[in-house]
Amino acid sequence: MIRYVLKQCKNAKQSIYGKMFAYPVIEETIDEEALSAHMASHNTPFSQGAIKGMLTDMVQCIHELLLEGKNVKLSNLAIFSIGIKNAKGGAEDEEDFSVQKNIQGVKLRARATGIMLAKGLKLNATLKKAVALTGISTSSGTGTGTSGGSNTGGNTGGNTGGGDNGGGGGDDGLQI
Length: 176
Description:
Elements: E1 2-8, E2 20-24, H1 32-40, H2 48-67, E3 72-74, E4 78-86, H3 99-102, E5 103-112, H4 118-124, E6 126-129, H5 131-134, E7 146-147, E8 167-168, E9 174-175
Helix pairs in contact: 1-2
């Protein structure tokens, strides 16, 4: 179940000023140790230690391949790639371009694939308003439909993929 809180846009310069949007409540971040323990509990013949070793090796290999200029696709998760963060303004022409002056750095990009695509997540996600966390209810009554929303956050990760923040009203679990 994905719990969410509602937040109001406070930026008066935005066309969405004063509108409410749903944001997920992240309860915990799972590291490799906890992920390997979780995976080992699914009736696998592999121990937690063996799984953790495979995950650690996988991360190192993905890092190595990305730095070789390759993309890495994990079906039903993401395509990992490297992006370049260019300096503002750009270079006037090829002769004016230099790495030191025109490139601020590189970044990791991840594009969802398979069941992790927005449409696959939407079909399987159950949302519930996290009133207990905030103690404040911003809706009147309960709702059973979804309300439209838009991705109001900036594209800070460098990924050009889109998405939307669908939300529901009320305190009941909502299947979308």
